[in-house]
Amino acid sequence: MTLGVGLMAARALGQPDNICLLSEGKEVRKGQPCFRLGRGNRQMTLRAPVDGIIDQVNVSALKDSSTVSMDPFGRGWIYRIEPRGEISLEEFISGAKADGWLKSEISRLRDFLAGRTESPALAGATLQDGGMPVDGFGEQLDDEHWHQLLEDFLGLETGN
Questions:
Q1: 3-state DSSP assignment of residue 160
Q2: Which helix (H) or strand (E) holds 88?
């Protein structure tokens, strides 16, 4: 299983300037923190989706952190994990259900950003036409709304 940052989380943070990873061979437990990304004073902690062992760490992503935010499903992956135990694919959203969920979340994000950024035009210019938010859009949020974005939209922690 390849683990990386979801596109929305990657866009919210932008290109990380610090990445804290576990080492190869380390055991991870579902729901437990497994890596942290940061950019300036913005941090996010991501959790393991399954129990397993880290089989490989993408050292290329550490050398060029832009791949983590710009190509999270390609060159920007973080770990390859060898799962342990049973994995239920029903826990993961896929297909038409994922498409509907993503459209709903982008709409919700557009509404959230419109009233909470220092530049309300940011939401209008990036999301109203159906596009994705600009890279690093989380920088436009104050600390309270950054935490709310991570928790309510991304299911993440701030990493502090």
A1: coil
A2: none
- Flag whether pLDDT at 82 surpasses 70: yes
**86-105: string of b/e by CB count within 10 Å (b at 16+)?**
eeeeeeeeeeeeeeeeeeee
Backbone angles phi, psi at 140, to 5 degrees: -80, -10
CB burial class (10 A; 0-12, 13-18, 19+) of residue 10? buried
What pLDDT shows up at residue 75?
92
Q: How many Å apart are CA 56 and CA 118, to the nearest integer?
A: 40
Annotation: CATH topology of 2-88? OB fold (Dihydrolipoamide Acetyltransferase, E2P) (2.40.50)
**Closest to 154 measured CA to CA, from 18, 76, 46:** 46
Q: How far apart are CA 14 and CA 139, in angstroms?
A: 9
Could you tell me if 135 and 11 are in contact, meaning their C-beta atoms sit under 8 angstroms apart?
A: yes
Per-domain residue ranges for the chain?
2-88, 95-154
Mean pLDDT, rounded, of the chain: 83
This prediction's pTM: 0.77
CA distance 158 to 134: 20
